[in-house]
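Q: Please design a sequence for this.
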């Protein structure tokens, strides 16, 4: 299921023109955290070897990026998204590091 969600998000991301902040797609929300896919400069839309996209775990309660990862292949992202979901779950547990 994660792989399908990532593939669909990448399809949406690929259809957004430009590399600005609007060139991002929400993959998941866990409490105050979001997992986003975004295209940075040099994204590999034409197969030149540059990264396809970045993944970011963002915590809205602290207004900071918690973690990020650059992906060169779609299948690289599955493990990272699962890890980000685990991190976000931990951050949002009562009494956990994200409890404010």
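A: Design:
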């Amino acid at each position: 299921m994660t792989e399908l969600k990532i593939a669909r998000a990448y399809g949406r991301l690929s259809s957004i023109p430009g590399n600005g902040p609007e060139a991002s797609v929400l993959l998941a929300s866990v409490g105050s955290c979001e997992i986003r896919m975004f295209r940075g400069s040099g994204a590999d839309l034409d197969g030149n070897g540059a990264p396809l996209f970045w993944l970011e775990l963002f915590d809205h309660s602290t207004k900071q990026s918690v973690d990020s990862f650059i992906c060169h292949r779609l299948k690289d992202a599955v493990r990272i998204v699962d890890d980000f979901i685990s991190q976000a779950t931990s951050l949002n547990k009562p009494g956990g590091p994200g409890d404010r």
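Q: Thanks. Anything notable?
A: The chain has two helices and four strands. Strands lie at 24-30, 33-38, 53-59, 64-71.
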